[in-house]
Amino acid sequence: MRKIITVAHIQYDFEAVLEEEHEYNDEFYVNVDKNLNEIKEHKIVVLANSKGVDAGEGNAFEKIDFHLYKARLDGHDFLFNTIKRDCSKVLKSADYTAVDTTEIQMRRFTLGTTEGDIKVLDSNFNLEREISQAHVGEITKLKFFPSGEALISSSQDMQLKIWSVRDGVNPRTLIGHKATVTDIAIIDRGRNVLSASLDGTIRLWECGTATTIHTFNRKENPYDGVNSIALFAETEKQFSDISTPKKDNLEFGTHGKHVIAGHVSGVITVYNVFSKEQTIQLPSKFTCSCNTLAVDMNNANYVYAGYENGMLAQWDLRSPECPVDEFLINEGTPITNVYFAAGALFVSSGLDTSIKLDIISDPKSERPVVGFETPTFLVSNDDEVSQFCHLPHNESRGEVIEVGKYNFCALYNLSNP
After folding, report:
1. Smallest Cα–Cα separation from 274: which of 228, 233, 303?
2. CA distance 388 to 385
3. Which of 174, 179, 245, 362 could form a disulfide with 198 if both were Cys (CB 3.0 to 4.6 A apart)?
4. CATH code reported for the domain at 176-336
5. CA within 13 Å, CB half, 337
6. How confident is the model over 69-101, as pLDDT tens digits?
7. Cβ distance 313 to 298 under 8 Å?
């Protein structure tokens, strides 16, 4: 049964309104999108002389943790997670399209832009290195190699490039795709990588020689563009290698690895990276593009896919006929990014809709359940999110960084409600 995730938007500067000393009552607003054509505005009155807030009869608004607020409006609960650090204040203005981080030796960040530039930043977001015009088109994805000393980029210019973090040198360029390269997955230590493209292919590369080892295509339509891929290791017999081909001497760490791909048609395919077989195909349930997908890192049987029409689907790869759960977010507005980290799903949709959905272990259903009834909205100023990246901490769920257009780069603390 299709579930609706009710979207709420809070006034961006509401924290300042709450924290100011008021001689007279002040106010801020929360808008709840009841449906595509109906938005209800809720006025939250901040009472004078620190006497609390008035959210209206039957409603409530309170701070429950550091940067985390809870609103109860018309019987529905909404959580709002505010920015811990606005990183854009230390960055040169740009439209950011890609982000990644590494913890090796020291924390670093890398950002990609619409202009094809790459920035490498230290832990305080100070610029360490900028590679201007690294590509002649928009950067679509950036990944640090496990060593932390190199990174790989993909672009609309149909190329992938490997870069030295230390000196910005480009020792290898991977050429072969015939359209925008949309996504990257690094296998083990990075001797091999996978890349996806709108030309309908997923290429397995050997980085040392810039050689394509194998090209994967969807059997039924080899030109069905690939928007997103995710790599995972097999967990059950059904994912075991169908055959055992002669191992290529340029192939490392592919045994037991599988790549899942979201296609322009809306179909989702799974390939055994070692045997090179297409093993599973999930149907185009919503007859529109599968824009983005993520694998549940706690249980690789489950995949979350975001679609052009605003649908979010949870699939069980053991039962590929139909999704096990469906959620509608901003009907008709494309879901642009789905990202799994810290036991939660991060979803971006259109302007100013960035949501954290907790994934809950439910013994009754015997599967991970999406906690859609109390979503957490990551508060921004009408910003369009391109990508997420998780920053783990030993003592907490960590932080997440979001990047997007109009110089949007923000860090959020992942508080527990």
Report:
1. 233
2. 8
3. 179
4. 2.130.10.10
5. 27
6. 999 999 999 999 999 999 988 888 899 999 999
7. no
Ordered by start, the domain boundaries in the chain are 7-63, 176-336
User: Cα–Cα distance between 70 and 247 in angstroms, integer?
Assistant: 55
Name the residue type at position 414: L
* C-alpha–C-alpha distance, residues 258 and 279, integer Å: 9
| Residue 194 phi, psi (nearest 5) | -115, 145
For residue 242, the model assigns a pLDDT of 47
Chain mean position to CA 360? 19
Please give the model's pTM, rounded to 2 decimal places: 0.94
Torsion of CA 184, 188, 192, 197, to 10 degrees: -20
Rounded to the nearest angstrom, the gap between the alpha carbon of residue 41 and the centroid of all alpha carbons in its chain is: 29
**Closest by alpha carbon to 30, among 6, 11, 5?**
11
The token pair that represents 400 in the structure block? 């997440």
Distance CA 165, CA 186 (A): 17
Element (H, E) at 228: strand 226-233
Nearest-5° angle of CA 144, CA 352, CA 294? 40
By residue count, the chain amounts to 417
Cα–Cα dist 291/150, whole Å: 28
